[in-house]
Amino acid sequence: MEIIEKLGKVGLIPVAVFENAADAVPTAKALAAGGVPVMEITMRTAAGIDAIRAVRKECPDVLVGAGTVLSFEKCKEVVEAGAQFIVAPGFNPEIVGWCVDNQIPVTPGCVTPTEIEMALGKGLKIVKFFPASVYGGVKGCAALYGPYKSVGVKFIPTGGVNEDNLSEFADKPFIHAIGGGWLCNPKDVAAGKFDKITEIAKRSVEIMMGFEMAHIGINIDGDKESESVVDALSDAFGFEKKLGNSSNFAGSGIEVLKSNGLGSCGHIAIRTNNIDRAIYYLENKGYEVDMSSAKFKGDKMVAVYLKNEIGGFAFHLLQK
Question: Mapping DSSP to helix (H, G, I), strand (E, B) and coil, where does residue 27 land?
Fold first, then answer.
């Protein structure tokens, strides 16, 4: 998996500032334990370079990038130290050009149409949007996405994003990933509160995924039998009766199939903010996805079943 693609799959990019390079490895391990095996180590302190070296050596499964890269010289230095991707607050033609020429993933800061077109001119479609809170947040990204949707531009908002507003960004198709320092607060790092960092990472992943119950499906064999079940549910609870080709619905939460579908007892549908990202996280937890069951709208996946049953039910994901 390419690095920029993996950043999108993980979806969260912790922005780490270290005063002491010795804190980098336990922070990386804490984030990975919380489901976020990525770090953007900033060059805002003298410890940044040594922090990158340490994490690359001790945490091979953690994707490590360098942030706040402001000069061509610093860019070369962080790459030599092991940085796997480069993040810059603005568009520096020298940095971007060198990274592109040397096939080093780079996400420069772009908050205007001119800067986005400069990035496109270098073959870049994923750009940093910084500081997001100053330049309109989700609305700012949406406005810029409009004219560049057709060429695939997406944003990594950073600056002003936290647990409170994370969900505003998580379900938008123009957001590639979300960055921020809330995932590894420097005060928690300095105090050695690595368990807290893990908790915040886990909670942020849950917010980003946005898993919620969509409906439950009941296996019934036969058209008349299916409609009879829906009639009973409508009579008992007042659920609206909706007839369909392969199944009927009682309200929006109960699907009654006309033939026995997947799952010993039926199926449960779970909505998520980003189905591709959900697949990545579930597979990392050991759940298998049945890609032969995937349904698409255009080139976008909108539904897919897991191979695993839980409690006799098959589960499928639905794109919100």
Answer: helix
The residue from 9, 29, 40, 258 that is catalytic is: 40
The string of pLDDT tens digits covering residues 191-203 is: 999 999 999 999 9
* This prediction's pTM: 0.94
Peptide bond into 105 cis (omega under 30): no
pLDDT in tens, 22-73: 999 999 999 999 999 999 999 999 999 999 999 999 999 999 999 999 999 9
Give the 3-state secondary structure percentages of the chain, helix then strand then coil, rounded to 5.
Answer: 40, 25, 30
Which residue is catalytic, options 9, 29, 74, 128? 128
Residues sharing a CB contact under 8 Å with residue 253, sequence separation 6 or more, in sequence order: 213, 214, 215, 216, 239
**Token pair 């890609």 in the structure block, residue:** 291
Bridge partners of 300? 297
Residue 182 host element (H or E):
none
- DSSP secondary-structure letter at 239? P
23: DSSP letter: G
Distance CA 139, CA 118 (A): 22
Q: Which helix (H) or strand (E) holds 225?
A: helix 223-237
Task: Report angle CA 109, 111, 114 to the nearest 5 degrees.
Answer: 100
Q: Is 40 a residue of the active site?
A: yes
Nearest by Cα to 258 from 234, 216, 235, 224: 224
